[in-house]
Amino acid sequence: MEMERINDDTILVRIENEDLQERGTSVSELLANPTEIEEFFHSILVEMDVIDQFEDSEGMSFQVMPNPEGIELYVTKFVEKKDIEADSERFVRNLVDTIQHSLGHRMGKPKKEKKVEAPVEKEKTLEPLDCTVFFDSFEDFVQLAKMYPYNVQKSSLYRYSNYYFLHVYQDVFGGEDFTADVALLREFGEFSRVSWEVVQEYGEVMIKEKAIETAKKYFK
Question: Which domains does the chain have, with CATH numbers?
Answer without folding.
Answer: 2-102 (no CATH), 131-218 (3.30.70.1950)
